[in-house]
Amino acid sequence: MKLEVIQEDIRAHVYPPTRTCPLARALQRQTGDPEARVGMSFARANGKMYYLSYEAKLFVRAHDEGQEVKPTSFELQYSGKY
Q1: How far is CA 26 from the centre of its chain?
Q2: At what angle are helices 22-31 and 54-64 packed, to 10 degrees?
Q3: N- or C-end of the chain: fewer Cβ atoms within 10 A?
Q4: What is the pLDDT of residues 48-69, one digit of tens each?
């Protein structure tokens, strides 16, 4: 699954970061699942789990550490149902 993080996802974040980091907001927006979540290694939405790519993990870490992040896209690999 290709996940696109847009500027609005970055601008609209609030804490706690696991619920509404830019990656989670992008996943919520693209899947239509308001309960979609992103952790440090996995993402889940609509009953499906996805592995985060190395680049996505770096993005999450940078955001969590307060670094500036920019719009980008990531490939998430389907890992099964949860």
Answers
A1: 6
A2: 120
A3: C
A4: 999 999 999 999 999 888 898 9
Measuring CA to CA, which residue among 42, 16, 15 is closest to residue 27?
Answer: 42
**Cα separations in angstroms, 18 against 14, 49, 82:** 10, 15, 17
Query: What's the pTM value of the predicted model, to 2 decimals?
Result: 0.86
- 46: region left, alpha or beta (phi > 0 left; psi from -120 to 50 alpha): left
From residue 76, give the alpha-carbon distance in Å to each of 11, 15, 66: 22, 23, 23
* b/e sequence 23-62, b meaning 16+ C-beta within 10 Å: bbbbbbbbbeeeebbbeeeebbbeebebbbeeebbebbee
Contacts of residue 30, defined as CB under 8 A and 6 or more positions apart, other chains included, come to 3, 4
Type and span of the H or E element at 18 = helix 17-20
> Is the separation of the CB atoms in 21 and 63 below 8 Å?
yes
